[in-house]
Design brief:
Blueprint: H1 2-21, E1 25-31, E2 42-43, E3 61-64, E4 67-74, E5 80-81, E6 84-86, E7 98-106, E8 112-120, E9 128-134, E10 143-149, E11 156-162, E12 169-176, E13 179-184, E14 187-192, E15 203-211, E16 227-239, H2 256-279
Helix pairs in contact: 1-2
Amino acid sequence: MIRKLAALLAALCLLAIPANAARQWQLVSREDFAGPLAPHWTVYDGSPKCCLATVWSPELAQTRDGRLKLTATRQADGAWLAAGAGAAGWPVMVRTYGKYVARIRMDRGEGVSAVALLWPKSNAWPPEIDYYEIAGTDGDRVRETATLHRAGDNAQTHSSYRGDLTQWHTITLEWLPGSITYFVDNTRTGQVTDSSYIPHEPMWPAFQLQIDQDKAGNPLISTTGPVSMWVDWFAVYAPAGDSIGTAPVEGRRPDWWAIAVLGALIAAFAGVIFVRRRTR
């Protein structure tokens, strides 16, 4: 009897585990950047609070040959302009949890940083998920870093990948209630499972360039430019079973029926063992 119950318990565990461990995804939307940049992308204008040396110009965010092209370029007076584009105005892209996949490459050029990120809908920073980031100090583009900024104290986790980032690579972020996982060309490069670091609020995706600066906010750049970040395509997925409409989705719920049955079976198993020991 005990052996039969043990076998049944093991079988139920095998049935229950894939429901949480084997994640399935459903496509929310894909952008191939065919034709002019679609109006659901908002091109950046002005300077971010963090980076006074960066001045974004809408004209420098363009599509070319079916790709998004974000460019940083030097002006006649020595100042630099850069580009960025975000999906804050694209309702299905403002989500809580999902899978984000982009095909990206970056031109060489010391002093120009590039990032693919998720930004909070509330605009209350942090949190922030930088799942592809190349520092301006890496002018040859041989290292890519993924950085997670924790809400509240801005504590950070980092994962890195080394390779020729002037070539095309497929960059993937999987953001779930219990984990954030990074991939380059389908190879996992890092994972965060500490729930205190994981955002649990709606966020929207963006791609942007920044100009490196010194402590006074002056441009710190040696390249003569121009320097471009290229995005061939971009796709976003929701966990299977979640809504893919305009409202932000929540994380997948546990399979409570499996948990209840598993709990009952464990209790029965324990009861049989207890009775057998009492009758010996």
